[in-house]
């Protein structure tokens, strides 16, 4: 798999809610704090997003998509100046996989999903994203259009099996939105570094062979750069050095294997460590927990 697929698989995103609403007239809906990441697309009409992490209200038009990764409260409204009501009062009894109505609908439709990410490693994906990822260019809309249109059709028809289809469609929208944000190339971290030819190739190599005894020299050679030039470029784009990134990725893989019940010895060997003690020392240094403490915390 590629590095983005690796990380998303490691975090095991689970859709907590998929669905949407149609609104008309004057309205303002408040959504409180949450865990995970929310993804919304405006499929018809337009509205405003008022978010605690952004100084000014954002206008959302038909075809726009937003990712909200930090769990901060926000409002969606026909007018930013309107007082808001809690979404649970506005949409009483609306279940996942449904399309709710507000003021008889007819003017704006918003579809989306709420994903919870397994484990404390979620920060490796969410921590480097801005409070709001707003995708609004025509090329962005075109890339997302098929999945969004299909999701709207499934929610409107409510045919057998539509929940599973909608769940997969909104997951597709989430991944595509992350890819589009990555293509913009703004930011520091492994996600943005993937778009760089040399550093992205090095990250891919690390993910493909995490047990290999990589050094800065061998990684630089693999991407056709000098050792010093590669090390400096990697740290500038990723925020960590190549070996720090390698070690952290190994420990993320180890954390998943520990929770799945694999032995410390087997995990150490699979990640290139010569002894359990060397692996355990590295795990504690990176995560702050011993392997045993990690398993205990996961079970609790």
Keywords, separated by commas or semicolons:
300 residues, alpha+beta, Jelly Rolls, six-stranded mixed beta sheet, 13 helices, 47% helix
Overview of this structure, please?
This protein is α+β, with helices and mostly antiparallel strands. The protein folds into 2 domains: 3-184, Jelly Rolls, CATH 2.60.120; 191-299, Arc Repressor Mutant, subunit A, CATH 1.10.10. The protein contains 13 helices and 11 strands. A 6-stranded mixed sheet has the order 9-1-10-3-6-11, with helices on one face. Strands 5-4-7-2-8 form a 5-stranded mixed sheet. The protein is elongated.
Short description:
By secondary structure, this protein is of the alpha+beta class.
How many E-type strands?
11
Instruction: Report the sheet with the most strands, covering strand number, pairing sense and barrel closure.
Output: 6 strands, mixed
The residue-averaged pLDDT reads 88
Radius of gyration: 22 Å
* Count of domain modules: 2
- What's the oligomerization state? single chain
CATH secondary-structure class of the largest domain? Mainly Beta
N→C terminal distance: 31 Å
Strand order of the largest sheet: 9-1-10-3-6-11
Sketch the topology as an H/E string, one letter per element: HEEEEEEEEHEEHEHHHHHHHHHH
Contiguous helical run count = 13
Low-confidence stretches: none
Report the CATH topology name of the largest domain. Jelly Rolls
Secondary structure category: alpha+beta
Fraction of helical residues? 40-55%
Domain HTH araC/xylS-type: 200-297
InterPro entries: AraC_lig, AraC_XylS_family_regulators, Homeodomain-like_sf, HTH-like, HTH_AraC
Keywords: DNA-binding, Transcription, Transcription regulation
Organism: Sphingomonas gei
